[in-house]
Batch of 4 targets.
Target 1
Amino acid sequence: MRLPTIAIVAAALLVGGCGTPSLLITPVSNTQKLREAQVAGGKSGDKIALIEVEGVLVNARTGGFLQPTENKVSLFKEQLDRAASDDKVKAVVLRVNSPGGTVTASDTMYEMIKRFKAKTNKPVIASLQEVAASGGYYVACASDAIVASPTSVVGSIGVIFNTFDASRGLDKIGIRAEAIKSGPLKDMGSPFKAMTADERAVMQGMVDEYYGRFLGIVKERRPITDEAKVKNATDGRVFSGQQALAAGLVDHLGMLEDAVKLARRSANAPGAKVIMYKRPYGYSGSIYANGPTPTPQANVMHLELPGTDSFLPTGFYYLWQP
């Protein structure tokens, strides 16, 4: 662009009420390490670590458009490790807002909390927010006490395996899927054919096994002794926080602040401040960090985007999916 042209453009901007365009560059740290941030004050050097259990729980990197990807299982482990290694952290509050996730991710996070408590003897309090269903509730069961809002959605205790049968629809348009397989059950659960009785029996057996594990944890961790009440609480339905308290699925009703107060009392640290661990830029993580990022896929029937529930692969889930 010639000099007279630049002058004309600049003059036009000024006449139109626009100043000269400017660009502000702010240097930032490129660290991938978690940083501690204080989110609530206290009167002593003691700390309560607030750790999130949020969204669909999968052992894979998730993130939206132009957002950093993070493996939730990896991040959870990293945060617990930080809380375990800091003697000033006296207790942990889990801020749970999750409809659940895969069977394995939910169970892994549950076991992490158990090992954290066995190693540190630090109390863990779960604070249920809008939703703490299925795998989200499964993780909360590892805590020493569960605090729910009266309006929280709690429960959906059970296992689900979703598939569909598109074979008759494909027949109508002249398409037939054919699998070359090593054994009769290799393609069980395929949406391109009707499920046989043998396939259904195998899949039901796995669902029953995973449900039995969930049921065992509820019986072990929750003070529900009446079998009729156990059956009612674990048939897959959801409860309000108020109903969950009556059913024995939670211990107290209250807000996040009430869970923090309970954590301070449990740890004998009344003046503890509340901190969180955040990763400002980049991605690192623990030994779980390299779970693959789901690949975006599109076809005429479905669009799959990482970072949303729609990317969930076929599998077994502790998941509330209304």
Target 2
Amino acid sequence: MIQIETEGPGDVPARERLLDACFGRARWFKTCQRIRRDRLPAAGLSFVAREDGRVVGTVRLWHIEAGSAGSALLLGPLAVDPARQSAGIGGALMRHALAEAAKLGHPAVLLVGDAPYYARFGFTPALTTDLDMPGPVQRERFLGVELVQGALTGAQGLVKATGALALPKRRAA
């Protein structure tokens, strides 16, 4: 049975292994990663899916400014253990993350991903037409969903990171 829980500090190593298995080293060079770099995820919006105590899925949301629309969230990466894909884990993580973001009053979520997959959660490229990422993305994969009706209406400009900065790790003296 799959359980979705808030990610804890002890989940980070398993999460990183899962992301490496799903995306490899290329994940470090994507435009979305540049936005997330040196930032903390949005409070209360990092989740893991567990099966028999093992992390089999993960998703995080990050604070951003969506151009003229103002505050929003950036979702990603969403990853599911390759051996457990097509079992509904990604969908369950998405529904949970979006519901929690809405409960916390966030107005909109953006992501870069597979449009046919994310359309079932309400994501569309029509909401990001006049928004730009700070690096290369395939326009048809740059998607948005409104958690508050009209939150992205007329949005234009550059997407920027706004979340809290992560503290640098201290080196042993």
Target 3
Amino acid sequence: MQTDPPLDCPLCPRLVGFRAENARLYPEFHNAPVASFGRPDARLLIVGMAPGLKGANRTGRPFTGDYAGDLLYDTLVRFGFARGAYDKRADDGLSLVDCRITNAVRCVPPQNKPVGAEVNACRPFLTETLAEMRRLKVILVLGSLAHGATLSALGLRKSAVKFGHDCAHDLGDGRWLVGSYHCSRYNTNTGRLTEAMFHAVFARARDLVDG
């Protein structure tokens, strides 16, 4: 099993159809599964939900080109998990440092809402991504969907580890699972997530990675 699906992945009919429609509307977009960004020997893995239509689905790099990426990449640079200048392009020269970013669902879903069958179909890719990261110490999940998908990929019951913002769970195998509200425009506009709250999560992740 591969860690990333092929560009013509056929597993989810609804997402295949949506990709085809977007290829017609936006032929210059990536319009394919978005591969993980970063090296497999990283100690921090960030798991998001799915590519944004005009973010990662456009650029081909996770969280690149939409509002969520503005906050995420600025925070990664601040805490030493990235270097360079983020410019909302996959070729902006920004690189990750001891960090990797992926999504629970690798294709853009309609209304930014993947369904359970799509999360399940993409799970093997997340399982393989986790398995190949031999030095992994911290898994930082953005939102409850990413939290549930990650637990399933780890073979853990969702009821065993509750999702909570800035909550860290010792998985008992040398790894930690840390939760954060998703850095979406909706969450920041409504005040559910502030910049300070997001920075606090990454300060915790930094401590756990280095501890």
Target 4
Amino acid sequence: MKVIPGPEHRTENPTSREPSIRPLDPFIPHPDVRERHSLVVRAPAAVVFEAAEAFDFQSVLFIKGIIRLRQLLLRSINVERRPIPFLQEALAMGWGVLASTPGRVFVAGAHCQPWLADVRFVPIAPADFASFGEPNRVKIAWTLEVEPLDSNSTRLATETRAVATDAESRRRFRHYWRWARFGIVAIRWFMLPAIGRQAERAWRARSTSGVA
């Protein structure tokens, strides 16, 4: 597994072109903030998606530390949690499913006020997401994507976009984003390689046992 940090934290493969239309384009075509990160994992796409779906992102101590630091800085409530699969936890937090292609792409979104200490994510129906404009809110959408490069390698990617619904929320969001982005981007940088390692271990175990 090879990771090259960059504007999109991306490892390019000369045999595969990135699509011109992204999964988030129908929902947030003109974001205030856009972050995309990807890497190549040496395992089939189905195995990579399974690993991502089941991954407990707070199992990475650095990610857990970032979340705890935000709680301390904003004096939010420290809620005890149990290990839970990534996508299951996202839905439990209030994220809504905007689109899904089983084993390939998962798109989630919600509106919130991210500058609050205890953020409440409120889902929006997919058909209403692009036009939603309730004042003093920020719409956020993110993806989990796997793209087969060949039979044994996959591009794993995640993209996050955010857009404020009015000038006041944009001002507050920009103030928040000045410092929060460092933790949010770092979480992606640690999460994707951890998922990749988990997928590669699972694929090696299957290959060794003869189960594919």
